[in-house]
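Morning run. Coffee first, then this:
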Amino acid sequence: MSTRIVIAGLMLAVAAGCQTTDPLQQYEQNAIDTALARAKFDMNCPEATGSVLSSKQIEPVSIRFGVARAEYTVGVQGCGKRTTMIVMCAEDGSGCVAGNEQ
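And here it is:
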């Protein structure tokens, strides 16, 4: 009986370790923070707020080179102004970069 419990416990631990997190959700707050940092400066509006309007995952150019990225369109508004920012976050955790949508 105790062997069954141990095996069941090990199977649950392995199953829990195999769960993946959605990279789009994982980097969403970083994307908003990155867009806000740039927009607050560009708009001269410290009280600006932002929210994700859309997101998608971009695969690396090749399997051997490059890193997968998460792309976000972040809407920012404040001080009577509105803008959108495209934010790219590398899924290797190296950071995010924001640019205005053109």
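The chain has three helices and four strands. Good start to the day.
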